[in-house]
Specification:
binds adenosine-5'-triphosphate, 7 strands, 11 helices, 10% strand, globular, 5-stranded parallel β-sheet, single chain, alpha/beta, 258 residues, Rossmann fold, two-stranded antiparallel ribbon
Length: 258
């Protein structure tokens, strides 16, 4: 599809195209298209930009990932379709494993995602086929199947675009969880230790940039960033941003350009 450069929703439409392309390649599940739509709605309300509260969460995430002994990035279809390069770059920066973990798991989709990530430069992708031989208790979906070399033994799991059940299950296992979710009201957003309320497309780029900078900080500085971080405050700021924005818009003359 050709989207003119002047189109006011160009960025959003280009992202949509990536998701659709991911679906055509067998990477994104049909349900992933709907989940993306829910995200788009919140992005619209947030003004489609990265706010300070997201930046704060990104910095805390990178600090936590750098301090972790065994960080793992859990990748689903939408994440793989939208930010494959950024996930690989980030994994290299923070020395993390990459693991495929799917709600709607099929062997074909696992393999399509692993192949897609390898095509973008990933050296190893866990959680494919027999490698997903361990089980996380208390989860009923196919997401309970994990790699014994990955999520099972991780101390911190970065789960962009997660569902609430899994975030809660990972927490119960004593893992630190970092999520990216445009919806500050979702169970994922509320259950995670750190929630980046931003579009994964924008957030992942900033995460790579921050990882490059923060890699050189000493341990004490990183620990201080985490000690000063409050996820509840960040979620409140996200909601207040939506509220203030709508308040302002609802009391002004509505033009086409918001
Ligand atoms: P929960 O189970 O946590 O309450 P949910 O039922 O909304 O949440 P899903 O149906 O898995 O969970 O929805 C996926 C979530 O991902 C949604 O909350 C949506 O806002 C978010 N999301 C979708 N696309 C993006 C994106 N590109 N960037 C960030 N977040 C996104």
């Amino acid at each position: 599809m050709i989207i003119p450069p002047s189109h006011p929703r160009r960025e959003s439409l280009l992202i949509r195209e990536k998701i659709v392309e991911g679906y055509r390649r067998g990477i994104v599940a049909l349900e992933g298209l709907i989940a993306h739509g829910r995200g788009e709605c919140f992005d619209y309300l947030l003004g489609e930009k990265t706010h300070d509260f997201a930046l704060k969460a990104i910095k805390a995430s990178i600090a936590l990932l750098l301090l972790s002994k065994y960080p793992v990035i859990s990748v689903n279809g939408n994440t793989a379709a939208l930010v494959p390069r950024e996930i690989i770059e980030l994994a290299e920066m923070i020395d993390a494993k990459i693991e495929v973990n799917l709600f709607y798991r099929t062997r074909e989709r696992e393999e399509a995602i692993a192949e897609w990530l390898k095509k973008h430069g990933a050296r190893e992708v866990l959680g494919v086929g027999e490698d997903a031989s361990a089980t996380i208790p208390e989860l009923f979906s196919e997401r309970r199947r994990v790699s014994p070399r990955g999520i099972l033994v991780a101390d911190t799991v970065f789960v962009p675009l997660e569902d609430g059940d899994r975030t809660e299950a990972l927490k119960r296992l004593g893992k630190k969880v970092i999520a990216v979710d445009l919806n500050p009201l979702s169970r994922t957003a509320r259950a995670a230790d750190i929630t980046i309320v931003d579009n994964i497309v924008r957030a992942a780029k900033i995460m790579v940039k921050e990882a490059k900078i923060m890699k050189n900080k000493d341990r004490r500085e990183l620990e201080e960033i985490i000690a000063n971080y409050n996820n509840n405050e960040v979620l409140q700021q996200a909601l207040k941003t939506i509220l203030n924005r709508l308040e302002k818009l609802s009391s002004s003359k509505l033009t086409i350009d918001i």
